[in-house]
Design a protein that fits this description.
By secondary structure, this protein is α+β, with helices and mostly antiparallel strands. The chain has one domain: Gcn5-related N-acetyltransferase (GNAT) (Aminopeptidase). It has two helices and five strands. Strands 1-2-3-4-5 form a five-stranded mixed sheet, covered by helices on one side. The protein is elongated and about 70 Å long. 12% of the residues are buried.
Length: 110
């Protein structure tokens, strides 16, 4: 387990094998209230090693005392959702309302 400083409120953290090849990397940022998992990537040759789980666990442990909450930033992908949920997450659904003006509707709105 290694990590490199980016700034005082963000880190890229990685899990590596014995030959220094990365197994999983993540980018986290935080303030006094929340930490956010901005990006998580796993080496496709090593998906079943548990490196992503170890990485998230080590990231959460690293953040103890620095922030109060860890936000996985969610996912629309069901498998990723299940993976994040395995850490005991609380699901918060967000809805987006967007106004669109399709060009074909101009005929009906005159």
């Amino acid at each position: 387990f290694k990590h490199d400083n980016i700034v005082k409120s963000g880190k890229i953290i990685g899990v590596y094998d014995n030959s220094d090849k990365y197994l999983a990397l993540c980018f986290i940022v935080w303030d006094s209230l929340y930490a956010y998992l901005i990006g998580l990537t796993t080496n496709s040759d090593n998906l079943k090693t548990g490196a992503s789980s170890l990485l998230i666990l080590n990231s959460i442990n690293y953040l103890i005392g620095k922030t109060k909450n860890f936000d996985f930033e969610g996912s629309m992908d069901e498998n990723i959702y299940k993976f994040y949920n395995s850490f005991g997450t609380i699901t918060k659904n967000y809805f987006k309302i967007k106004r669109i003006k399709p060009s074909f509707m101009k005929v009906f709105l005159r």
